[in-house]
Amino acid sequence: MKKLTFFLLSILLLSNLNMKAQDNGAAIAGAVAGIAAIGAGIAAVEQMKEQAELSATEWFLTHHPEFNQFSLKTLDFDGKKLKDMSTTSVITFKIQEFDIYNDEPLLGEKSVLFGFTSYGWINEYGIDFNKVQWFLINNEEWMNMMTAYSKVASGVENESIIRDALTNGKVLNRGIKGKKGQDVDFYKIDGDMYLVTDYSDDMKFIYNERSLGIYLKKTTDLVQIKRNSIIEIHEFFFDEN
């Protein structure tokens, strides 16, 4: 009887160990699959980044053949997930001319290239550039854009104050920190409230709590440049070398 009991207990113990091993194996397999999925997502975003930079370079070379020496780098994609990129409405590229002097690059004029996207611009095949509208600006145009945006965002009508703050101060999430107390504070409004100004024949600017909205009249698309991207673009034009 004792032998039978010992035999049955041994079977139960071995069965339990086998079940645990199977569970551990399933957990390990699940973890490996998860890691593989993450790796595939990162690879897909990196591939889209390369595809976007290539297409932006092709557009720039085609429409601005006067540029012979320049660098082009996207502000987007780094640290982004695939699902984040699918909801992105603007892809932004920093462009800077340079000359070679004593075998070293001598940096020159800066530009920013916007790629305004329409719904469905990312699909199972990658990026559909037929749904991307390109728009190139220099620092003067950016200053004009930021001045118009800041006017509607703050209610400050004196453009000299705004331009001085933009030139000598610092763009923050809630406004512009100017010199000598000449701050330009943005309105505190709810996320579903919008202030609109007609900027040009191509665009309207829209201020809300989270972003610079740009309504494209030609395509009737509303795209959004997030506040941290606004800060990064402004620093590129006015703070970086």
Task: Please name the defining characteristics of this protein.
241 residues; alpha+beta; 4-stranded antiparallel β-sheet; 5 helices; 44% helix; 29% strand; globular; disordered N terminus
Low-confidence stretches: 2-9, 26-42
The backbone outline, from C-alpha atoms, is globular
Number of strands: 13
Sheet with the most strands: spatial strand order:
1-2-3-6
What's the end-to-end separation, in Å? 88 Å
Helix content: 40-55%
Q: How many structurally independent domains? A: 1
Q: Sketch the major β-sheet.
A: 4 strands, antiparallel
> Counting H and I runs of at least 4 residues, what is the number of helices?
5
Order of helices and strands: HEHEEEEEHHEEEEEEEH
What is the averaged pLDDT score? Answer: 80
Counting helices, strands and paired strands, the structural category is alpha+beta
Radius of gyration from CA coordinates: 27 Å
Our estimate of the beta-strand percent is: 25-35%
Q: Mind explaining what this structure looks like?
A:
- The longest helix is centred in the N-terminal third of the chain and has 62 residues, at 2-63.
- The protein has 5 helices and 13 strands.
- It has helices spanning 2-63, 82-86, 139-154, 159-168, 227-238; strands at 70-74, 90-101, 104-117, 122-123, 126-127, 132-138, 170-172, 175-177, 184-185, 195-198, 203-207, 211-216, 221-226.
- It has 241 residues and is of the alpha+beta class.
- The protein has one domain.
- The strands form 4 sheets. The chain has a 4-stranded antiparallel beta sheet, with helices on both faces.
- The chain is globular and about 45 Å long.
- Keywords: Signal.
- Residues 1-21 form the signal peptide.
